[in-house]
Design a protein that fits this description.
By secondary structure, the protein is of the alpha/beta class. The chain has a single domain, classed as Double Stranded RNA Binding Domain (2-Layer Sandwich), CATH 3.30.160. Strands 1, 2, 3, 4, 5 and 6 form a six-stranded mixed sheet that branches. Helix 2 crosses helix 3. It is elongated and about 75 Å long. The relative contact order is 0.17.
């Protein structure tokens, strides 16, 4: 008897749930993308290339678009890196100094922070399909800035992919 009641309640609950995935995704005629070099307004000369390569990989792997030249692509992706702060201390340990010496502070966690403006444009109509300023960050242990950069780039491409899919 208990099993029948439990099964019945489960069936009622499941039949009441009406959910599905609608919208989002890419239009079927969008198959190729050109990811242009990102303008770099920061002091770090390497971040532009790193952002462009991360975005290109995400466009190909996560959005399923093939890479194409700017004159042949269905969509053009371009952007500008407006801020890049790679060394922001966020966690500290204080160590009291011995008699007559100063206390010391050791940074135990750092933050890399960046802001990027991104645009996706339909090449034939020049219609802006997606445009958004994005701020991301990544924490890392001292001496491991590359970990913070990787985390920040992962967040950046996730926001771009999610934003692009929600706009179509």
């Amino acid at each position: 008897m208990r099993r029948a009641i439990t099964s019945g309640l489960a069936m009622v609950a499941l039949s009441a749930c009406s959910f599905g995935f609608k919208g989002g995704g890419l239009p079927p005629d969008v198959r190729t993308a050109a990811v242009l070099p990102f303008e770099n307004e920061t002091a770090d000369p390497t971040i532009g290339q790193a952002v462009m390569l991360s975005v290109r990989e995400a466009v190909e792997r996560r959005l399923g678009l093939r890479s194409a030249g700017e004159n042949q692509a269905d969509v053009i992706v371009r952007g500008k890196i407006t801020r890049y702060d790679p060394d922001l201390p966020i966690a500290y340990n204080g160590v009291p100094g011995a008699a007559g010496t100063a206390d010391t502070v050791k940074v135990t966690q750092r933050l890399l922070s960046m802001s990027v403006s991104v645009e996706m444009i339909e090449r034939t109509t020049l219609k802006v399909i997606y445009s958004n300023p994005i701020a991301v960050d990544g924490t890392y242990d001292p001496g491991r800035e590359s970990d913070g950069r990787r985390r920040a780039l992962d967040k950046l491409v996730t926001k771009i992919v999610e934003g692009a899919q929600s706009k179509w």
